[in-house]
Amino acid sequence: MANAERAELHKTIWKIANDLRGSVDGWDFKQYVLGTLFYRFISENLANYLNDHQRKAGFKDFDYSKLKDKEAEFGRKETVEEKGFFILPSELFVNVRAAAKNDPNLNETLARVFHNIEASALGAPSELDIKGLFDDLDVNNNRIGATVAKRNELLVKLLDAVGELALGNYADNSIDAFGDAYEYLMTMYASSAGKSGGEFFTPQEVSELLAKITVVGKKKVNKVYDPACGSGSLLLQFAKVLGKENVTDGFFGQEINITTYNLCRINMFLHDINYEKFDIAHGDTLTEPAHWDDEPFEAIVSNPPYSIKWDGDTNPLMINDNRYSPAGVLAPKSKADLAFTLHILHWLSTSGTAAIVEFPGVLYRGGAEQKIRKYLVDNNYVDAVIQLPKEMFFGTSIQTCILVLKKSKSDNSVMFIDASTEFKRIGKYNVMTEEYRERILETLANRNDIQHFASLVPADQITAKDYTLAVNAYVELEDTREVVDIVALNAEIERIVARQGELRASIDAIVSSLDREK
Predict the structure, then answer these.
(1) How far apart are CA 97 and CA 53, in angstroms?
(2) From residue 112, how far is each of 76, 96, 106, 138 by CA, in Å?
(3) CA–CA separation, 445 vs 451, rounded Å?
(4) Under 8 Å between Cβ of 330 and 435
(5) CB 385 within 8 A of CB 363
(6) Rounded to an integer, what distance in angstroms lies between the CA atom of residue 112 and that of residue 58?
(7) Strand pairing partners for 221?
(8) d(C-alpha 494, C-alpha 13), whole Å
(9) Which residues, at least 6 apart from 480, have a Cβ–Cβ distance to it below 8 Å?
(10) Contact predicate 323/300, CB 8 Å
(11) b/e per residue, 447-467, with b = 16+ CB within 10 A?
(12) Residue 168's pLDDT band (boundaries 50, 70, 90)?
C-alpha cells in the first residue's frame, strides 16, 4: 500500500471512529469498528477463496456472492476444513450491506449472521479459534441507540463506512490494507484511551524491535510465543520481519482479558494467519498456562502488565511449579513481573531468544527479586538489558527496559545499552525511529563497548554490584553540561570588576560636581 493510500485510509478511519460513535466512549466503540472490519474481511477472504477454487476448475464466471444459499451448502464441510468457518452467500458482508437500509430488523439479521458464522465451526478443529469472535459486537446494546430504529440507523452507517474503505480487491493483496487498518485503529484508540489503551497495545516500533532482537541472524523460526499477548501486535511482527511462511509451526499466545483475547484472534485473521497457524488461549498464564504441550519456543516476545498482583506464595503449588522452583523463590505477590520472566525462560528453547519489556524496578529492587536476578545471572541467562526512552507507551511516562534472555550464550557477559535518548518526539509520545532501532540491533550483534551508549559487562562485575541490572550502573551518562574555561572566566570577571570600578569613580565624580554647583 502506497503512503498516500495509507494516509487516505487513516483519514477515513479516523472520520468513522469519531463521526459514528456518538455518545459511546471511543475505546468501547472500537469493538464495533473492528468487528465490522473483521466481518468484511472474512467475507471477502472466503468469497475470494471459493471463487479462485471454482475458476481454476473451469468455471470462469463463478461468483460466490451471487450463488443461492441452497446451492452453496454443498461445499460447507470442505470449506470449514480449509478456512475454519463458513458463510452463506446471503450472509456475506457485501449482501447484508446492500440490503441494510431496507432491513427494519438489521440488528437481528446481523446477530443471526454472527451466530451462524461461529456455529459453522462447531465440532471442527477451528471451533475454539472462531468461538466468541463477535461477542463484543453487541448489535442490541442500548449504548449505540435507545431504540431499535436508532441502533439500526447507526449500524447502516457503520456497514457503509467500513464497506467504502479503500482496502482494494482482496485478490490483489489487500491483506496488508486490512492489517494496516486494524493496527491504525488500535494505535488511535490506545492513544486516546491512555492507560487503559496501553494494556491492549504495544507501539509498533517497540514490537518490531522486540521481534528483530529475537531473530538476529535467522531467516526462519519454528514457533513464536507471547504469554501476555494483548491484541497480538508483538506476535504479528514476526510475520512482517520474517514473513509468515517462515514461522513454520505457528503463532502462540495467551491473554487473560476476554475482550483483548477476542481482539487478538481477530487480528490474526485480519493479517491472513489461518486458524491452523495460530493458537491463542484465554486465561491466566502464571497459574494456568495453556501451552504445556507446545513449548519450548524459539522466539518469545512480551510486554506483560507492570507490577500486577498474583498468587505468589499464597498458592502452595507455585513454589513447586517447575517454571519457578529453579530460582528457589517466588516473585513478590504484589509484583508479578519476574514471575512472567521465569515462565518465559522456562519455555524458551535452548537455541532461542526472549525479549521482554520490563518495569525498571525489577532491575534493582532487593528481596525476592534480587534472588531471582542472582539466579538469572549466575546461570548466564541474561544476554542484554536495554534502557528505553520515557513516554513511549500509552498511559505511562516511565522509562521501561528490555530484558533479553538466552539459554546458550557464547560468553559470560551482559550487554548493557542506554537507548534512553534514542527517540524522536511525535505528538505526546517519544518514538524510536528505524535509525535508532538499527543502532541497537547492530550493537547487540557486535557486542562492542560504545562510550556513553553500550558496555559489555562480565558477570563477576554484576555480582560485585549485588546483581543490579540497572543500565545506568554500567553505562556512564554523557555529561552534556557546557565546558567552562576557568582561566577565561576569571579574566572576564577581572575585566568586569575593573569596569565596575571605573563606572563607580565616574558616578562619584558626577555627584561631587553636582554638589559643588549647589
Answers:
(1) 25
(2) 18, 11, 10, 12
(3) 17
(4) no
(5) yes
(6) 34
(7) 247
(8) 66
(9) none
(10) no
(11) eeeeeebbbbbebeebeeeeb
(12) low
Residue 150 C-alpha from the chain's centroid: 35
| One-letter identity of residue 226 | D
Q: With contact defined as beta carbons under 8 Å apart, do 415 and 447 qualify?
A: yes
- Kindly report whether the peptide bond that precedes residue 296 is cis, defined as omega within 30 degrees of 0: yes
Instruction: Render 343-362 in DSSP notation, one character per residue.
Output: HHHHTEEEEEEEEEEE-GGG
Contact (Cβ atoms closer than 8 angstroms) between residue 335 and residue 368? no
Distance CA(129)–CA(117), nearest Å, equals: 12
**265-290 as b/e: b if 16+ CB within 10 A:** bbbbbbbbbbbebbbbbbeebbeebb
Which long-range contacts does 372-376 make (Cβ < 8 Å, 24+ apart)?
372/327, 372/329, 372/331, 372/338, 372/341, 372/342, 373/338, 373/467, 373/468, 373/469, 374/467, 375/326, 375/327, 375/328, 376/327, 376/341, 376/345, 376/405
Q: pLDDT at residue 13 above 80?
A: no
Per residue in 129-165, pLDDT (tens digit) is 999 999 988 898 888 888 999 999 989 998 998 888 8
Q: What is the pLDDT of residues 33-90, one digit of tens each?
A: 888 989 998 999 999 999 999 999 898 899 999 999 999 999 999 999 999 999 999 9
Which of 280, 185, 292, 188 minimizes the C-alpha distance to 230?
280
Q: What are phi and psi of 424, to 5 degrees?
A: -125, 135
Helices 26-56 and 175-193 pack at an angle, to 10 degrees, of: 170
* Residues making up the chain, counted from first to last: 518
Q: Concatenated DSSP letters for 364-398?
A: T--THHHHHHHHHHHTT-EEEEEEPPSS-STT--S
Dihedral sign, Cα of residue 165, residue 171, residue 172, residue 173: positive
Among residues 162, 145, 140, 155, the alpha carbon closest in space to that of 34 is found at: 162
Helices (H), 101-232: 106-119, 127-130, 148-163, 175-193, 195-198, 204-214
Identity of the residue numbered 139:
V
Q: Name the H helices within 57-174.
A: 69-72, 76-83, 93-100, 106-119, 127-130, 148-163
- Closest C-alpha among 198, 204, 196, 251 to residue 223: 251
pTM of the predicted model as reported, rounded to 2 decimal places: 0.83
CA distances from 446 to 116, 300, 318, 387, 415 (A): 54, 22, 39, 18, 10
Q: SS3 string of 491-517? A: HHHHHHHHHHHHHHHHHHHHHHHHHHH
Residues 6 or more apart from 308 whose CB is under 8 A from it? 335, 336
Residue 112, amino acid? R
Helix (H) or strand (E) holding 251: strand 247-255
